[in-house]
Amino acid sequence: MSALLDLRGVEASYGASQALFGVDLQVREGELVALMGRNGMGKTTTIKVICRLLKNSAGDVAFAGQDLRSLPSHKAAQLGLGLVPEGRRCFTNLSVWENLYAAARPGAWDLAKVYELFPRLGERADQMAKSLSGGEQQMLAIGRALMTNPRLLILDEATEGLAPVVRQEIWAAIGTLKSTSGLSILVVDKTISELRRIADSAVILERGRSVWQGRIDALTSDLRNKYLGV
Description:
By secondary structure, the chain is an alpha/beta fold. It contains 9 helices and 10 strands. Helix 3 runs parallel beside helix 6.
């Protein structure tokens, strides 16, 4: 089966500073892939390339069989890329409902389904996003991405900086999406214990290169210590 998302030999730079030196990454329909690596190894830069927020200088980037390299970010999003960015970035001067409605596109995901996944958003529908807790803002960011009815949901550090109980709520929601929605999901995270429960495979980046990829259950302690340890 061909990959829904397919990156091969991707290189990218910020001005004169090269950040990616050869990233290979594939996500198939209905698969949850973990993109892993220590801080500063190129994970968020890879996400920016996928979403066309940063152009790659070499390599191939394809989504749903279409070459993304010449597309602006909004055109890539219209193909079905749904991004939950690092740091949440909700529209703080809009209400929960307005944040969700602003992103709405036709499809299975609507307000009722988002509120079913995250009941707290339904309870706070009229609240301004800036008044929400960090965890609630993260739920809102995920809900907003789902309202675009994506084919691929990309979560960049979705649980970073959240209280343990809230992290569990987010992981539970991601697990529900994996088991019930049929969505393809790309997760940037370091939490091995949670990823083992829901991820199908993983890709590890080291200094802007893909250095390991395979089934999540093949990620041994030696590999974790080599590529993910402090």
